[in-house]
Each structure stands twice: as structure tokens, then as C-alpha cells.
Amino acid sequence: MSVRIYPIRLGMDDCYVIQERGTIMVDGGFPLSARAFSMALAKISIEPMQIQLVVLTHGHFDHIGSANTIRERTGARIALHQADQEQLEKDKMTWPPGVTPWGKFSRGLFKPILSLLPYELPQVDILLGDEGLSLEAYGISGRIIHTPGHSPGSVTVLLDTGDAFVGCMAQNSLPFCLRPRLPIYAQDIEKIKQGWRMLIAEGARTIYPGHGKPFSIEVIKEVL
pTM for the full model? Predict the structure, then answer.
């Protein structure tokens, strides 16, 4: 059975429903996105209960904000890396430093405003470790890979087809950037580059960022 990929825009977050023999979702969307989630599923003719797993690429508010609502409506399990779970317990509105001039300026501009958004921390069912996780049990030919750098527990969903769902290892939309590039915020930009080299070696071909449209891995190869 071929893989089908459905982008779902939930606020600032581009989430993805992946369907093969089973169905999973990547990321939990911006806070207060419950209605947008229901409308998006209806548009692609997927029943909520078909989604078995929601993989959170990292623990930042714009990727986890509606995860609990999605969990309630689908019955899906939520997976998050243990390093980001531990960081969330210390700081609900964790936000990495800017690594570009715009990143540094915009962080100071946006964080005080967005910190006012109401949302719950996700109820995590699967704490991911550095060894990652095979998705075969969920009917998806692929795996979750630990790719830290944007946050300590950032992960990538890499399918056997070469489709890679990378969260904020790269960005491709306003207000972050005008074209595909490495993130403007990162805890360790060098670790992000190491993660990209590993994904290239593992066969990543088409990149699905957490913000913006998909693009070719050739863009990242040029950056590196």
C-alpha cells in the first residue's frame, strides 16, 4: 500500500497525517486549534479514530498546543522525547535562542505576547529515548529518529520513502523566513547540522517542515 501524506495547517504549525497500512499524525498544532483539526480531517475524509499515534517533533508550544484535544478526539497515543518532557516540566513556554539577527529580534518581540496563550501540557503516553522508535507497529514503514539541536528532544519521522518530517530543523514560511533554510532559533545549531548530515546518510529526500511547504533535501545539502 502506498503512503499518503496530508498536510494540515493548525495555526502557525504545519502538521501532517500519514496513512499507509495505519494512520499517524506528526505534531499537535498551535493552541486553540480544535475546530481547525476537525475541519481538516473532514476535508481529507479521515475519521478521528483512525489516527493511532501523534508524534510531537518537539515540545514547543506551537507544536503541542492542541495535542491533548487531538488525543481526546482520536484516542491516539502521544509520543514525545523524554528530554523535551523534562524541559517542559521546568518551563512550559520554552523557547530557544535566536541564531540569526531576525531570530534574536523576533524572539524578544513575540515571546512576551505568545506566552499569554492558554494551553495544557500534553499527556504523553510514549516517552522516546535516543534510540528512536520503529513505526511498523502503527502500520507505517518508517521510524522516529532523535535529531536534537532546535530543542534537546527534537525528533524526525523518516519514512522508508525518504519523506522526512523534521519539525523545526528547518523552516520555510513567514514570519521565520522567505525561503527554505535552517531554523532561526536553536539551542545548538551545530547539532542541527549534524542531524541533517545523518538524515542525508539515512536517505532523506523530501523535507516536510513544521512551518511551510515541503522542499527537496538538495536545499539543505547546499546550506551545509
Answer: 0.97
